[in-house]
Amino acid sequence: MSKNRNDLTQEELMLQGTVWSTVSNFTSRLLGVIYVIPWFMWMGEHATQANALFNMGYNVYAYFLLISTTGLNVAIAKQVAKYNSMEQEEHSYQLIRGTLKLMVVLGLMFSAIMYITAPVFAKLSGSDQQLIPIMHSLSLAVLVFPTMSVIRGIFQGYNNLKPSALSQIAEQIIRVIWMLSTTFAIMKLGSGDYLKAVTQSTFAAFIGMIASMAVLIYYLKQQGL
């Protein structure tokens, strides 16, 4: 019979977490290698320009992800672990609820900032107007990321890495499926507009995060939070 999670020792929990983290990292890296080949092929003669726009958009996006959480995901994990070790779960729940409300506000704020400042970043990058729709699509992912990141921190505080790992796997799988299916539809079956294809490829980050959030919310309900 498999052990109940509450019956596992700290060593077993750490081993289980390591296994899930390894599986998640391997899956993400594998998908990252696999999707590039067909994506470049379908972009055809526009592959270089498309890749440049994709990378420029993601570079700006990465900075917004970094500042949108301000390290709160790590802090919440430490505090949840602290309260749980002291058997003060009610304090832990209050902290979680308060932090999640804050993350919703931060997500809205930084998403709006990224959307509004898209023309500025487009001008600074030298890509004229082409980068604007790409940044607009990525701003939607910024809306979700702070809350998603903190929920992963909550599970880390409970020393339960399985939900986070499964959410990351779901995020990457759905993201890649969206990227490839929309790129193929636009470049091979549709208008052949590579800018629209790149925009859908970056919009895939938002779609992937929705899938990730669905997994995390499922496990949050199981946790009784």
Give a written overview of the molecule:
- The chain is an all-alpha fold and 225 residues long.
- 85% of the residues lie in helices and 0% in strands.
- The protein has helices spanning 10-43, 47-69, 72-85, 89-116, 118-125, 131-157, 162-189, 194-223.
- Helix 7 (162-189) packs antiparallel against helix 8.
- It is globular and about 60 Å long.
- The two termini are 27 Å apart.
Question: What does the average pLDDT come to?
Answer: 88
Stretches with pLDDT under 50, minimum 5 residues: none
Write down the Rg: 19 Å
Strand content: under 5%
SSE map:
Blueprint lengths: L9 H34 L3 H23 L2 H14 L3 H28 L1 H8 L5 H27 L4 H28 L4 H30 L2
State the gist of this model.
With 225 residues, the protein is mainly α.
Question: Which key phrases capture this entry?
Answer:
225 residues, mainly alpha, 85% helix, 0% strand
